[in-house]
User: What shape does this take?
Amino acid sequence: MIKIIKNRSTQLSFKNGLTISIAIGDLNYCDRKNPTLNPTPDPEMLIQVVKSGNAEIAIYDSQNNWFNFGSDEVLGWVNSDDLANWIHWTQSARDLEDLKVQFELKTTDNKSL
Assistant: This one.
């Protein structure tokens, strides 16, 4: 399933029960982040095209258990190449534990995330 939420977040849900959320709103950890913003309700809805050089991601399962990236349950400033990798890893993992093993292997190998 694919969801787009309020013109700032996309969620891709896979057969394995995992979902990756990709967010580029003014309050997300991405190029568009504006810590001084006091947003009106849903400011992104007023913009025709919302774009960012990177995104904030989160991954969770069908029981609403969230993946921990090591220090947080979200990972910010993820560029498009790394985002493609995270989508692939999320789709191909059996579950969150399998994704954790993949993540630890990639981190140990000093590969780009």
